[in-house]
Amino acid sequence: MQVIPQPFATDTEETEPALLVDVTGSMRDPVLPGGRLTKRDLATQVCTLVVKGLAGQDSQAADEQSEGGGGVYAVAFADDTFFDVGDLNPNSFEMKWRTLRWRGSTYILPGLERQMDHYNQEFGHRPKDKQPALLLAVITDGALEDQDAANAFLANAKGYSLRLCRADRDRRGPRCCG
Predict the structure, then answer these.
(1) pLDDT beyond 80 at 162
(2) Is-contact 23 11, C-beta < 8 A?
């Protein structure tokens, strides 16, 4: 069976791609017991593909040249805090990815809040119907320590065109939802 990825947005829809990455200590663990490939290695491979795929969907890139050429705005999260990675594109990915520290527990809310703050700084001056859709790819390996708070935050993000992109465990591949 072949999986054909669906576009994250229509050709005419304005989009702002973003990436939220789990950099907690468990990401240093092997993907499979006794295996050599770590979750961090896997996340690196996935994020490389996400950056290549979503950077091309950054309809705002021309306005973001001062930020490093546009691309996928990335935030890392761990230990109830966030780390601004900045715009990732195929030219900047490797250098910026190497700066990440992989430790701590899985608290996603600070990263979600930072992504929305950044989005509002860039596009909050526009009427809601003129703001680009935020395409948010979330990379994490496990249960969130703050799942209820994250769900409440997302439930209150009314009025935004937000697409959460996920890779399902059933191997159907990445797709956007709601």
Answers:
(1) no
(2) no
Secondary element (H or E) of residue 43: helix 39-55
Is residue 54 one of the residues assigned to a domain?
yes
Strands lying side by side in the sheet with 174-177: 81-88, 72-78, 15-22, 133-139, 162-167, 174-177
The answer to whether the CB of 17 falls within 8 A of the CB of 137 is yes
What is each CA distance from 52 to 71, 76, 89, 92, 93, in whole angstroms? 9, 18, 7, 11, 9
CA separation for the pair 174, 44 (Å, rounded) = 15
| CB 1, CB 41: distance < 8 Å | no
Q: From CA 103, how far away is CA 81, in angstroms rounded?
A: 12
**For residue 163, is it within any domain?**
yes
- What is residue 27's DSSP assignment? G
Quick: pLDDT tens for 8-67. 444 557 888 889 999 999 999 998 889 999 999 999 999 998 888 877 665 555 555 445
Domain containing 157: what range? 20-105+124-177
Does the model's pTM come out above 0.85?
no
Maximum C-alpha span of the chain: 52
Examine the pLDDT at 157 and tell me if it is beyond 90.
no
- Whether 15 is in a domain gets the answer no
